[in-house]
Write a structure and sequence with these properties.
- By secondary structure, the protein is mainly alpha-helical.
- It has one domain: Orthogonal Bundle (Helix Hairpins).
- It is built from six helices and no strands.
- Helix 1 crosses helix 4 and helix 2 runs antiparallel to helix 4.
- The protein is globular and about 50 Å long.
- It starts with 6 loop residues before the first helix and ends in an 18-residue tail after the last helix.
Length: 127
């Protein structure tokens, strides 16, 4: 479904859901706080587990579905914030990824998780 559903379609589903409940007046601070709580709910599934234990945990279809629902909750808040701010998520995502291409050149950052300022030759792009 990811291959056929557009971000615009998902934003419209989100907008209709919000309007039907008269939730369009939520403030950005409250939306971001709620989103962080949903991220915390994802963390509850992996807390105190090794990477191998997480992989094993997610082989259970119920656990996999629960984590997916929490990811969907985070995505709901991303969509809601985009609607509230009038952000074109596709455009801003592509722009940010172009910035990250400069910050994390593949030939320097491959296999590393260091901050972009660590890489000699990485740079802030001209915006």
């Amino acid at each position: 479904m990811d291959e056929t559903t557009t971000i615009g379609e998902l934003k419209e589903i989100c907008r209709q859901y919000i309007v039907a409940r008269d939730w369009q007046h939520d403030e950005l601070k409250d939306l971001t706080l709620a989103m962080s709580l949903e991220v915390g709910e994802i963390l509850e599934h992996v807390r105190f587990k090794s990477d191998a234990e997480v992989r094993e945990y997610l082989t259970d279809p119920d656990h996999y579905r629960e984590v997916g629902y929490e990811v969907a909750d985070v995505f709901y808040f991303i969509m809601t914030i985009c609607l509230q701010l009038g952000l074109d998520l596709s455009a801003v995502y592509k722009e940010k990824m172009a910035i990250n291409e400069h910050r994390y050149p593949a030939h320097l950052a491959k296999g590393s998780n260091k901050k972009w300022t660590h890489y000699v030759g990485a740079s802030e792009p001209d915006l």
